Amino acid sequence: SMRDWRQVLQQWIAQEGTIVSLAKLHVEFIAWAISPPSFEHWPSHLPNCQALQDFYRLCDGGYFNWFRWVSLSQLGEQNRKWFQLLSDWDTRGDVLLPERHVVLAEDEGGCPVVWDAATDQVRAFQFDGGDWEPPLASSVEAFLTNLFNPEDEQEKDWWYLFLSWLDSHLKEG
What we know:
The strands form 2 sheets. This protein has a 4-stranded antiparallel β-sheet. Strands 1-2-3 form a 3-stranded antiparallel β-sheet, with no helix packed on it. The chain has helices at 5-14, 16-23, 50-58, 72-85, 140-147, 158-169, and strands at 33-34, 62-64, 67-69, 101-106, 112-116, 122-126, 131-132. It contains 6 helices and 7 strands. It is globular and about 50 Å long.
């Protein structure tokens, strides 16, 4: 059955202490981290996204799978940094447009993971190769749903194993 990412985050925050002590026993799970919600306001200069607002209402960022989500208080700063770094980029001009894009996370290579308010898609920009990656998801909602419902059971990568392992250790309620 599909995992509701909102419920997962709520459960993780509620049992954060338990997970941290469990995760310490498993070196490969070090990349997991979660911060309790900070109740900062969504930066007014960034395009508005309901799923991202919900995400930050449940937690204040962290590490999930290969993605590092900054805290809400740093989101505006992170976006300014990327807008500057990717302004006037080779022949294409500005890669990111303030009224259109939100850098919501960074991937394992440190590349910005970007929500495009115009298309609703989530994509990473590969700055060392200088191009957009294929879309990670058709929306932020879909991106978060995919993140907590890894599809490929054949591969059984560490994130898939981590989620299964947590399921077996965290009892409902």
